[in-house]
Write a structure and sequence with these properties.
This protein is of the alpha+beta class. Helix content is 32%, strand content 37%. It has helices spanning 45-60, 63-75; strands at 2-6, 9-16, 19-28, 33-42. The model has no long low-confidence stretch (mean pLDDT 95).
Amino acid sequence: MFVWKDHSRYVEVLPVTTGWFVVWGRYEDGGRRKLIAGNQVYTSRSGARRRVADAVLDLTRRPNLAAEAVFAFDGFAFPAHEAAELPAPL
């Protein structure tokens, strides 16, 4: 699992059956509470990479931290993973 943290803010990326799950938000009460600001599943790692940049920028309003997070994402040793076919819509 990829995790980016900066003080009370976080972004996490996990492989799931249908792609890559990205969740982002804030910690409160000294890290005892984890508040989720958003989450999304992406079928490609490049889509998850873009969400990491957007989520960090949204949380911090600092482009340099977004660039730092993307650099860390690019250097992270993700497991070999391919998204399965999406299920048929209901």
